[in-house]
Write a structure and sequence with these properties.
Blueprint (H helix, E strand, L loop, with lengths): L1 H24 L13 H12 L4 H11 L3 H10 L11 E6 L2 H5 L2 H12 L12 E6 L11 E3 L2 E3 L7 H16 L4
Parallel strand pairs: 1-2
Antiparallel strand pairs: 1-3, 3-4
Helix pairs in contact: 1-2, 2-3, 3-4
């Protein structure tokens, strides 16, 4: 158990070092008010490294930019792209915008919840899948819409969930092997 804990600390330190190097490469003047303009770019990098933006990462970024933690968390809470909770290797998102909702997205969501044995906003215990709700993906003509990572499935009905999950399982296996 202690070797696993050490490995996690080494991994975290490695990720923090990568983030620190990235921030350093931006040559930000910490006395210049325009430094805040780098925040979103840095948060994108941090999320790509860590997979999400927990409070400790937010505080690290705030310190590196010489700004308040509240400014960092405010940006994170404003933009839907950023997440403060871990996501699965494969994120399954069900659009619940008006067109999708009217055409049965709620039943599709329920089927995914049953299949994965989690609720929307949760992560499977193995960390492979997370289930999210989107408000609109701009593909109303394909309603109801499901996105699996960046792949869009249109005109989805509950009977299609098994096939979509088969694709998702293959995707998760490919990601675990280092592909995508």
């Amino acid at each position: 158990m202690s070797s696993t804990r050490c490995e996690k600390n080494v991994l975290s330190e490695e990720l923090y070092n990568k983030l620190s190097s990235f921030i350093g490469s931006l040559n930000i003047d910490l006395e210049d008010e325009r430094r805040k303009g780098y925040l979103i770019q840095i948060l994108h990098k941090a999320q790509s490294l860590f997979g999400y933006l927990p409070e400790e990462v937010q505080k690290f970024v705030a310190k590196k930019l010489n700004i308040c933690h509240s400014e960092v968390s405010g940006v994170i809470s404003f933009y839907n792209f950023f997440t403060t909770v871990p996501k699965g290797k494969v994120t399954i998102s069900i659009c619940m915008g008006t067109a999708c909702f009217v055409k049965g997205a709620e039943k599709v969501l329920q089927e995914f919840e049953n299949f994965l044995n989690i609720k929307a906003g949760e992560l499977t215990p193995d960390g492979k899948f997370s289930l999210d709700i989107l408000r609109c993906v701009g593909a109303c003509g394909l309603a109801p819409v499901v996105m699996v990572n960046n792949k869009v499935y249109g005109n989805v009905n509950p009977k299609m969930v098994g096939d979509i999950m088969a694709d998702s399982i293959k995707l998760a296996e490919a990601i675990e092997k280092g592909g995508e």
